[in-house]
Amino acid sequence: MKLAEKVRVLAVSAGAVTAVMAVMASQPVMAAGEQFFPALVYRTGPYAPNGLPFANGFVDYLKMLNARDGGINGVKATFEECETGYATDRGVECYERLKGKNPPYGATVFQPLSTGITFALTDKAPKDKVSIVSAGYGRADSVDGKVFKWNFPLGGTYWDAADILVQHVGKLQGGLDKLKGKKIALVYHDSPYGKEPIPLLQERSKMHGFDLLLLPVTHPGVEQKATWLQIRQQRPDYVFLWGWGVMNSTAIKEAVATGYPREKMYGVWWSGAEPDVIPAGDGAKGYNALVFLAPPGQGQVHKDILKYVYDKGQGSGKREDVGEVLYNRGMVSMMMAVEAVKRAQSKYGKKPMTGAQVRWGLENLAIDAATIKKIGFEGFMQPVSTSCADHGGANSGSVQAWDGKKWHVTAGPYHSDLQIIRPIIRASAAKYAGEKHVPPRDCATDASN
Amino acid sequence: MKKNRNLMILFAVLLAGLIAPLVTGASGAGFWVEVLLGGLMAGVLYSLVALGFVLIFKASGVFNFAQGAMVLFAALSVARMAEKMPLWAAMLMAVAIMVVLAFVIERLVLRPLVNQDPVVLLMATLGVTYFIDGFGQTVWGSDIYEIDLGIAREPVMILQSVFDGGILINKDDVAATAAAALLVILLALFFQKTKTGRALRAVADDHLAAQSIGIPLNRIWVIVWSLAGVVALVAGVVWGAKLGVQFSISQVALKALPVVILGGFTSIPGAIIGGLIIGVGEKMAEVFLAPIAVKAFDLAGGGIENWFAYVLALLFLLVLPEGLFGEKHIDRV
User: According to CATH, what is the number of the domain B2-17+27-319?
Assistant: First the structure.
């Protein structure tokens, strides 16, 4: 081998070793005695603009806990990101890859940020004894913990959201009875996520006599001309938007293009973040959306994140994005999982928790006003309290409006009407239990309770 | 003869479907015209992307699956560079980037695969798609970015005295139509009037014959991929200004597939007319046919415009396997 060739081989080898070491260094190191949180994220693909801030808030909270408190009651928290691209198959692949990490404890809890992935994991989780937390998304009927032992739709479901929106427009009309003869259009992502609110809205439509117009938008939602032409023809009194990612900003732009008033548009809480309105510019002024659990803004916890994470150059995103709607939601989602670990530690001891132990923590969550203040979330969080029968823990939401620069809470908080929702939940959960042969638990006698 | 008769029947059926909402009273004339215009304008945008497919297929026989990724990459380049310089300068820089990209693709992907089976080249462009998608997002970011052409999005009402409520049109749709029309005229002039354009047509007709008279195949490939890059840039700017620049615009390219199937893989007029037929067909189907289908089959919603475009394209394939304007294959047996 000539000298030049030897040098070249050496250089390539050194480069390869350096690259491998760099990749290894960028991965959080996991050792026994740590609490491992899998992070199913989407930082690329069609839904990245919304996935990015959520993922940043999600992992920044853990980084801050490690830096400020040394972990969770002394147990270091670790995480590993897996890119799902919001695709169900890749989400399941990530789940399979990460569920057994950090033996013997395994993954703490999975939060897929996708209703499609949540549906796919619902059948797998009981066998693997790991919980699925879907804060504000996923199966609405999984609130019923008697059937869905391993699912936790914390903070609210799509049926809560749809119910709150009907209550709000009813109030604007001067009462729910005044909705008779009115027309409400649901512009929805043509996916399990978008279809979730339909049963509740159909029920409310029968009760109050309003016409429900169902207008699906195919993935990813960039082609909505036909949808908005129908809205122009039908002239609904209100439009409920059940979109995600680019579908939201496209819908607002099309509303501008067809002259539909943005003040009459109400998005679900996944259609009310900065990436949904900023691309539409001034056209988005007056647009409304729900907000649940945590509104945008900054509190004590953000100060800590900036101090312990961003000041040290370890922030996951841009400093100025800390406190945005989806950043806060990612942060709160992680916080609830951490609080579940703390709750479990109060029963099983201050050590790393297994999936089954965390499940108990999730089912006995008691995030009250005092806890919220103590952990720095005062003003950003509604209390969440779960039980064997209620895996949601909260059912409230507020309405926020975009003024062209910021979101402002304009109405609420509303609470969904459980007298209407509970029978639908029970019927749907019973149907699932029948189809999947899941014997419902008796909350009074269940040993794991 | 039989083929012509079948084509006539197909056109008659489509025409009947087109005017059915008017005849049956399902729609007022004004709304029907609005849907028609909406379809035509969407069709023009599909044609823009389809043009890129046709250019490369015509000159090299390669079905460039990466055309959608090129649209995204070009739009991302313009949007991010326009944050630091005037839009016209960003567009010029983006043209240069697309030419460099064409050069790199020719050197690293096409040249080593000369004389390989077309399916190998297709798979190679699939690989190029994933590379450009990922590379573009790594370099430029995966957020939503703006391209501001300075055109107001507020709708304009026309023909209010003719139709009840008037006809609503958007200035940005009109601008997109004008841009597409201008691009087609420029491409036609380039192919008909310039020496390079004639060389491209010669290569399209017969690679070996073109080579034998001294036309350099590699240089032609760089030129045609650069041209496709410029077409992708125009499509990316138009789509990006309309939707915001982010990953989803690469998927709009999938809308161009039924267009080239219908119009023919080798025909520029085919890409234009195919785009218009697909645009009008899918919008009419979504607005007037989908509600009937939902009631008839008890579907909970169900947007049909995406797959209806392919149904339309397949109907044409049944009658004209080469597409409306595709080259007819006559093989000696």
Answer: 1.10.3470
